[in-house]
Fold this sequence. Notes:
The protein is an alpha/beta fold. It is built from 12 helices and 8 strands.
Amino acid sequence: MHMDDVAARGLVLLGCGKMGSAMLEGWLNQGLPATAVWVLDPQPSAWLRAQGVHINADLPADPALVLIAVKPQMMGDALPRLAAMGGGKTLFVSVAAGTGIAAYEAVLGAGTPIIRAMPNTPAAVGRGITALIGNDIATETHMALAEVLLRAVGQTVRLDNEGQMDAVTAVSGSGPAYVFHLIETLAAAGEAEGLPAELAMALAKATVGGAGQLAEDAAEDPGQLRVNVTSPNGTTQAALAVLMDETDGFPALMTRAVKAAADRSRELGRG
Length: 271
């Protein structure tokens, strides 16, 4: 099963908010025919209506793939409509946070190939990273197809087991918000040192964005990159002495923050 099969048998997108739209735009740009896509969404956007895909129309009987991108609270209404597609012929891929594979198996049947994926919001600019884990029915072919689709919005990684998804949620799923807050606080600190607000924000955004790109592109690891910009007894070292403090600097703070997110993810998963 590959993209030609998807084009021939069809792809159903359940929910087309920001994440669904980002993915759909990527697929269409890569040559998936709009006529091969069926979207179920109660409030289709003007952008979606202009794409030429089937919207809230009768679905194909056995599409190659169903991608579930609705908010978890809408799952109860949406998923039973697709139960007839369970049983093996159709691959289900979920990018909905917090819903475990077992919950999908309960509705779709145990013989259904299901892949759970956790993307993040930089997918909107093609810079996401998505972690995937399949159930026992999902084959290597299924996983490869899911990766092809999800690479339309960035990188993909595979997990060893579904239990790792809570930590993934805490690092990459929620992580963009931590970085946005870093930008906010860096800009505010610049203002406190006498910079105009707009200038401080421009410097903070470009610095965090540029450093992130450098960290991804450079051969050295981030620790070495940090050392590279830290002159002995210089300005960077003065700041890092504060930030790297073991008790109240980044190490302790980030560990506590990520643990809080992972703990909450586990609670929501049990709920």
